[in-house]
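User: Please predict the structure of the protein below. I'd like the answer in structure-token form so I can feed it into my own downstream comparison script.

Assistant: Understood. Taking the following sequence of 327 residues as input:
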Amino acid sequence: MYLSYDYEYEKIMYAKNIDTSIAPASITKLMTALILYENFPLNHEFITSYPANYAYSGKVAYIPEGISVTTEELLELLLVYSANDAAYIVANSVFSNYEQFIIEMNKKSKSLSMLSTNFVNPDGLDEENHFTTAKDLLKLSIYILENTKLLDITSKQEVYFDKLKQNGYKNTNLIIDSGFIGLKTGWTSNAGLTFVGYNQKNNRKIITIVNKSIVDDEKLNHFLDTKILYQISKDNYGNLKILDKDSQLYTIRNSNNIQFIKNNNEFYYFKKLNEEDISYYVEIKNNIFKIFYSEINEERKFKINTSSNIEYKFHWSNRFLNNIFNR
């Protein structure tokens, strides 16, 4: 399963099986971190405690009970080092009990329209009825990018804690230096190697999601798959300029004057670069210039510079753009 999404232009570029149910592995910790982030300030201090009968499992930082940690420190352990024990401390601390935290994880999912997701634990270890889809993970990722500053944490190469036995904890994301400053890695038997990447180099903002990458000996395949998916997306999709700023759109002539209708800004269409020309339906009404992409059911619109109350409708194809807008 994979997905690449242009964050700036809100377009899925490549996708396969994005509605198929998958195990989220430690990408689950994005939701755990989000709930913590939205309920407490970064400097809030918690006294660590675990749910009854908790036992260390998977990747852990061996955080002892009874020590003071801040919200920011827990977020770092969750998102940088991917510590499962940090996830259980969070789940036992944010609300009245651990069970309520799981309920709130699923409430938050539904509020984000992640309708094919269900969480039963805060760390992402494989468990029955713990599932999501690539499309739902995209919704979660977009929400985090638009409403939090968690990217400031996921982009850290390493974090340090004097109060724990191991002072330094390196990021499980091994391709930060390649521009992937977020968002979360994961690995379980059911999920394979999985990674939600976010890269904003090359004047692009691209989210990539890979799941079920083959678990190789060095556990690097999800990073290799991410780089391939990113490069193909970057090379094959781009912005094509449709109109320059102040392009003359239409001319209104009457007995007293001639009025030239121009647009306020540049206008681009984001598309696959080797894609055939797409037909457009264009409408100017009440000073709004609208472009409808009939084949793909999209609409773009922007205001134009005129005080006239005008209404025109016409059809055109982008290959005839210069002819249709009479100068």
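That's the full token string. The helical segments are 28-39, 71-79, 84-91, 98-111, 134-147, 151-154, 221-236, 321-324.
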